[in-house]
Amino acid sequence: MKNEKVAHRLILFNGIYAITLLPYPFVLMMSLYMYAYSHSSDQELLEIITAGLMATYPIGVLFSFICWIFYHYGKYKWAMVIANLFLVWLVAFLIVVLIGDYIV
User: What's the gap between Cα 30 and its chain centre?
Assistant: First the structure.
């Protein structure tokens, strides 16, 4: 390995993200059923944004695996940034959830 410390961090982050993909289909189906069952038109835009975020979850996880390309070329800082770019999705999701709780 070129840089063991960075490699171990990337393996940790990618491992955690990959493990979260296992229950994803179940969570997606639950959220889609809840979205279809909801009768509230008060938060229609918020529900659409939440459904869109849930549908794009695997894209963020799979995009985080690109970090190994940067690692291979010795750009360790960029590798760490790309590996943690998925956290932007998480922050957006938490903001939508908090806004939904605040409005209700």
Answer: 17
Q: Which pLDDT tens digit goes with each residue over 18-49?
A: 998 899 889 888 877 777 776 666 677 777 78
74: left (phi over 0), alpha (psi -120 to 50) or beta: left
Any long-range contacts for 94-102 (C-beta under 8 Å, 24+ apart)? Answer: 96/46, 96/49, 96/50, 96/53, 97/50, 99/46, 100/43, 100/46, 100/50
**Helical (H) or strand (E) element with 50:** helix 44-55
Are 49 and 96 a contacting pair, CB within 8 Å?
A: yes
